[in-house]
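Notes to self after the Tuesday call (sharing in case useful).
The group wants a holo model before anyone commits to mutagenesis around the pocket. I volunteered. Ligand is zinc ion. Logging inputs and output together so the record is complete.
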Amino acid sequence: MAVTPTSAELDRLRIEVPSWAYGNSGTRFRVFGTPGTPRDPFEKVADAAQVHAHTGLAPTVALHIPWDLVDDWGALRRHAEDLGVALGTINSNTFQDDDYKLGSLTHVEPRIRRKAIDHHLQCIDVMRQTGSRDLKVWLADGTNYPGQDSIRERQDRLAESLAEIYAALDDDHRMVLEYKFFEPAFYHTDIPDWGTSYVHCAALGEQAKVVLDTGHHAPGTNIEFIVAQLLRLGKLGAFDFNSRFYADDDLMVGAADPFQLFRIVVELIAGGGYGDPDVQLVLDQCHNIEAKVPGQIRSVLNVQEAVAKALSLDTAALDAARRAGDVLLANEVLMDAYATDVRPLLAEHRASKGLPEDPMRAFLASGYLERIAEERQGGVQAGWGA
Ligand code: AOS
Ligand code: ZN
Ligand code: ZN
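Result:
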């Protein structure tokens, strides 16, 4: 009872990959090195380009300031273009400086807020040089203890700081505001949920949208509901895809719960967000123990599989079952789509585009990993804990 997705439908998938996924990362216990780790942003972009070359799915690379600071943005941009990709979202960072221990855009001291705002203005300047559309703001701001600071005043300061940054955006820029329910703050977080992000985005204006990171909710949260709601409101700006078992695990998307990923994509399609450039799909992952480039290839393929399954949904049959109040049939129609083995279809689709039928095997056979292990010595950490 499933339908077959068309090639044109499959072709609408675009996934942005994060520069930090190619650097070494780890936990607070240990950062394991990987042979061939990039030593600079140019090498990170080169690794990202391998993902696109083998899958045809990842044409842009998200950058992180200051982790990816370079002297010559034009050179990085040309380097990306020469390798067949483009520079994407610019991520700010106000969480790795002693000044930000008690907050950044929400900090009680005007001097620290000024510094955090200026950092975002610097990011906007970088966007002008990289040709990026989106400024992604994720804040570690929050408190650890009841009474530590005024929750309400922090919201007011946040609104004021965001307004100043928003006012500096060019007309073709967007601010995408990410929420996270806890960590590193453990008592309260200043943007803990989609509602708070939405409230600030709505106050800022049309160019501000919410970022939904799939690892940033309490266990058991119905994420597809949030997707449906934000799409209804025209405020879903981007996804950070990853998967989690416990907290913000940043594991490969689709690894922990492929059924949840499918359900999210079903709502994305139903709400008109699939293939809409205004709803940017981005990976936000850290490959702690697996090789980075294959980890990214696996991730984009997992998203592609979820999309192909969701596109296999017989929406006419589902609609009829819903109208008839046939609970069991509606559920069966949905599960039929999920149970569809889309791998042969995707292999055929790739071949028709001149791509390898099995991108993972093709990449592993290409010798790229061996080459970078030889050429690159002393690669860098992704930035976490750096
Ligand atoms: C942090 O938990 C978030 O997921 C952010 O998206 C963060 O900006 C990203 O992980 C890299 O800095
Ligand atoms: Zn994220
Ligand atoms: Zn996160």
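Two things stood out.
Strands lie at 16-18, 60-64, 86-91, 134-137, 142-143, 174-178, 188-189, 208-213, 236-241, 280-283.
The mean pLDDT is 97.
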